[in-house]
Give the backbone structure.
Amino acid sequence: MRVLIAGLGENKEFGLKSLRDAGHFVGVIDLPHRVPINQCDWWRAGDRFSVDSMLEAASSADFEWDAILCWEELSTDVAREVARKLGVAATRMPAGVFRDKGLMHGRLREQGVPSPQLGVARAVEEGERLAEGRFPVVVKPTDYGGSGGVKVVDDPQDFADAFRAAAALSASGRVAVDRYVVGTEYSVEAVSWAPGDTQIIAITEKHLTRPPYCVEVGHVSPATVPDADRELLSAATVRALEALGMEAGVCHAEFRMSDTGPILMEVAGRPAGDQIPRLVELATGWNLNTAELAAVVGERTAPGTPAAECSAIRFFVGNGETPFRHRVTLDGASRPPLLGTLRELRYFAAEGTVPRVPRGPEDRVGYALFAGTRAEVLAALAELDQGAEVYRGD
C-alpha cells in the first residue's frame, strides 16, 4: 500500500521502518528538518497545522494514496481532514475529542466515566474558582501535546503563574484544571479494529520525575501489575474509547491507579511516543504501527514472536545544579547487566553540561533502551539510576 504520514513528529523512525519492512510505500509530509529523508520513499515539506498546505503537498504526488496516518499529536485532526478531502482511508474518531482535553473529559463525564477534571477556564480568576479548596491541582493546556505546560500546583499563590504558562501554549487559550490523583501510573496501548471491537495490546509501567512537572523519564513493558488491576485498566480503556467514539485506530491511554480504581488522565488517538511502540514490539511481538494501518483499511494483524521477556527505556535528565555525566561508561557497557541488554544509547548533551530541572520532554538529555529477561532489564535500570528513587505517582 501507499501510506502517507501527514505529520510525523519527533523520533518516529521505528514507525517508518515498521511500515517499510511490511512492504509498504511510505511518504511523509512535515517540516523538512523533521523528515528522515533516507527512511521514507517520498516526502514533501508542509505546514502540519494547515489543511490547505498538507492537502497541496499530498496532492502533488503523481499517484493516489491508500491510507493517511498521523503520528504528530498536534496534527491528527488536520491529517484526518486531508484524508477526508482526498477520499482516502484514515483513523476514524470524532474530530476534536481526542485533541481537546476539555471536550474529552466533558464527553467522559456525560457517559459516566470517572474524570479528574474540575473544569476548563479562560481566565485566571475562573480557574481559581475551580481550584478553590481542592489543592493540589493540575493545570494543563486543553489542546497542546505531550506534557508541555502541565504543572502540579500545591500553593494557591502559585496558581496564577502556572495558569498563564499553560494558557500561553494553548491554541484556544483554554486551560484545564484537574484534581491531583495519587496512584501508580500506567499507560495502555490498544487498537480498535472497528466500532465496539477494541483489543488491549499492552500495559506499560511509567516512571516520572516528582511534582510539580511529573516529566516521564522511563517506561517498562509489560508492566508488573496484579491481574485484578490489569483487568480494571483494560476495561477502563475500552469503556473510555467507546465513550469517546473511537471507531478505528490505535490509542495511548494514561491512567493513575487510585484507591477507587483507574482514573483516566488523558488518551491520544495515535500510537504512543517515547519509543513505546518499539518497547511493545520487543516484549509482546505486537507492532502498533502496522496494527494501526490494518485497522484503518479494515484488516487485522497478529503479533509476531517477542524478542525479549521485558523491555525498557530510561531518559536522562538534569536537576539544574549537577553537571551531567554520561551514565554508561566503557567499563559498565562491557559487563552485565548492561552487556547483553543495552539495545540503544543516545546522549543529547555533553558531559559537564548543567541541564535545567525538566519541565517537559524537551529537557531530556539522552536515553538508554534495554531488552532481556525482566530481572536483567530491572538490574540494568538500577545500575543507571545509581540508587535514586523512581517515582511512579504514588
